[in-house]
Amino acid sequence: MRPVPDLRIYLVTDAGQCRRRGRTVTDTVRDAVEGGATCVQVRDKHADGAELLSQVVDVARTVGEVVPVIVNDRIDVFLAARRLGAPVAGVHVGQSDLPAAVVRDLIGDDAYLGLSAATAEELIAAQEQGACDHVGIGAVRATATKTDAPAGLGVGGIAQLAASTALPCVAIGGVGAADLPALRAGGLSGAAVVSAICLADDPRAAARALRRAWEEGR
Fold this sequence. Notes:
This protein has helices spanning 15-20, 25-35, 49-63, 75-83, 100-107, 120-129, 154-162, 180-185, 195-198, 203-215, and strands at 9-12, 39-42, 69-72, 90-93, 112-117, 134-138, 169-172, 190-193. By secondary structure, the protein is an alpha/beta fold. The protein has a single domain (9-217), classed as Aldolase class I (TIM Barrel, Alpha-Beta Barrel). It has an 8-stranded parallel barrel, surrounded by 7 helices. α4 links the parallel β3 (69-72) and β4. α2 packs parallel to α3 and α3 crosses α4 (75-83). Its EC number is 2.5.1.3.
């Protein structure tokens, strides 16, 4: 049985946002982990395979021994990074990607597998399949970082969905520090953030504030 990754402050990277702040993805991730981010998902929908592999390997070699580094969607990139010896921990897929059971077969039993879900039916299916370790539920509110994100459900709606599954749940979609105490009190295992860290003037301080807000939800 795999241990559940520490999902409390789950950074999802956005290369464009990092560039707008004059930083690389790796610089942003390093600072965020030093500030208290507990998990990192490398996501770049615009990068080709070689570019994304380079980004994943760089991030994993920088923080992968400290926090889990998860690859968004690209199972081939995850496998290639492992072949290169980078400490990548798993992958995250959506409902329109390869079926979770197939992904599990490809990545092996030792890797984390996260799955996006937006409805009770999707959560029930995820639990019944038994392939994934945790689910990302969203969106909390409308967000510009994911063009195909579902309509915002609010903190209450996310908590209600999370209560319908035994799988650890992380909330995503327009999440800020002010949401974290209520999300934790609502039974979530963590919160995934993009802009709150990638667009921050100081990613380390932003991650520290998010971690503090999460702890206040006890």
